[in-house]
Specification:
Elements lengths: L2 H13 L1 H8 L4 H10 L6 H9 L2 H6 L18
Protein name: Nif11 domain-containing protein
Pfam families: Nif11
InterPro entries: CHP03798_Ocin (IPR022516), Nif11 (IPR012903)
Length: 79
């Protein structure tokens, strides 16, 4: 599991509209990570959230899906 894999997943979401919609259609964060793993991205929810929190474009897409709910910067090493 790695930040590189989380970044690769986010990069694909930015460039592949169908993939983005597929991932964002999954409202449960844990199930979203399971889906990312199924398609080859080995990252944790914390890694994914950490990168989304710093990516304003994707962060704006995530609030309605629950991805960043209860975000704790201490848990992902931001503080």
């Amino acid at each position: 599991m790695s930040m590189e894999q989380a970044k690769a997943a986010i990069d694909r979401m930015k460039t592949d509209k169908v993939f983005n919609q597929e991932v964002m259609a999954i409202s449960d964060p844990a199930r979203r990570i399971e889906h990312l793993k199924k398609v080859g991205f080995e990252c944790t929810e914390e890694e994914f959230i950490r990168l989304i929190d710093h990516d304003h474009d994707l962060r704006n897409d995530c609030p309605n899906t629950g991805m960043v709910i209860n975000f704790d910067p201490n848990k992902v090493g931001l503080k």
